[in-house]
Amino acid sequence: MSDASKKPRWLRWLIVLLALAVLALGARLLMARRAATAAAAPAAAASAPPAPQLELAAADVLVVAPTTLSRRLEVSGSLKAVNTALVKARVAAELKALTVREGDAVKAGQVIGQLDTTEFDWRLRQAEQQAASARSQLEIAQRQLANNQALVAQGFISPTALDTSVSNETGAQANLQAALAAVELARKSRGDATLVAPISGLVSQRLAQPGERVPLDARIVEIVDLSRIELEAAIAPQDLGGLRVGAKASLLLDGSSDEVAATVVRINPSATAGARTVSAYLALAPHPALRQGLFARGSIELGQTTALAMPLSAVRTDQAEPYAIRVKDGRAERRVLSLGATGQPAGTRLADGAWVEVKSGLQAGDRVLAASAGLVADGMRLKLASAPASQASAASR
Q1: Residues 243 and 233 sit within 8 Å (Cβ to Cβ)
Q2: Cα distances (angstroms) measured from residue 248 to each of 67, 112, 234, 254, 278
């Protein structure tokens, strides 16, 4: 073969070698780039901002545990005094004096005011004069009857004339009795002009002022006896099964943080028309803050039960179903709950808030976020305090 046929073969080998060299160089550059990317990744991760997380205080986390709850029925209503009285005008007259004002203490039978008695004095005098006249007429009739009886016995007059004298004496006797009754009525009207407290208590309203002419049955003073105060609570029909006379209750009054003990003393046998509720009456123990008309709320103890429970305030209701936020692997987890009866753990007060039985959705030992943690998104990272609160387990002990 000639040199011309060998030359292309040499060129072909040269091209192959150059191609291999280019491929080797490209592979080396690719590996170097990957190494540089891998080395830069930790630095980029270190410089990237950390994922958001919520820092929690110890009081923001509750440990759910079996708890002995007092099953309670929530009630509310206005306070009413068992004994109240309205002092009314029993006669129409001018109010001359009224010696008591709101807040004054009065005793039963105490004179608290006076109506003008001028008219009644004259009516009493008139009735007494008419009674005196009737008494005189009776005396005349009695003397005439005695004389006629003597004359009939002697035969001077007929028995018919005696019958007339008897009738006259009977009529005069009746006129005297009527006149004496008129005297007593006039005396009573005069006595009704004096205003007397019918019960002991405190004056709650002064409804008239001296100088006014008050009509018959006009309200002048209201008196309230605060020694016996009751709460009238409306009970739904489905809650009547466990309610009994003698059941104990605890109440909170408006404007006071003190709990007031109460007892169910009566249950109305009839339901309220329209509302279809039944009224239960709770007698409150004496307390300085008791006032008629104050609003009170509380609960009646129906019994005790032991169940998995948590504070009612930790149950969230901003979704279609009630749920709680459980702490799971450092993140917030939304758990839908099935709830039971509400109650109060032993050793707690009404002001501490009610608790509720958890039938499903949580297990004993689960940690949940309290209401103080606020709204927390599902899946948010959580940073817990070193000593989470265990209010639920503490309440059960």
Answers
A1: no
A2: 21, 39, 16, 20, 18
3-state secondary structure of 206: strand
- Assess contact for 369 and 363: CB atoms under 8 A: no
Q: How far apart are CA 339 and CA 311, in angstroms?
A: 12
What does residue 304 show for φ and ψ, rounded to 5 degrees?
-125, 150
Q: Which secondary structure element, helix H or strand E, spans residue 61, and what is its range? A: strand 61-63
The pTM for the full model equals 0.62
Encoded amino acid at 278, one letter: V
| pLDDT at position 349 over 80 | no
pLDDT, residue 228, reads 92
Q: Compute how many other C-beta atoms are within 10 angstroms of the C-beta atom of residue 193.
A: 22
CA distance 217 to 224: 19
Q: Provide the token pair at 331.
A: 């993140």
Query: By the 8 A CB rule, do 71 and 302 touch?
Result: yes
Give the span between the Cα atoms of 37 and 222, in whole angstroms.
Answer: 92
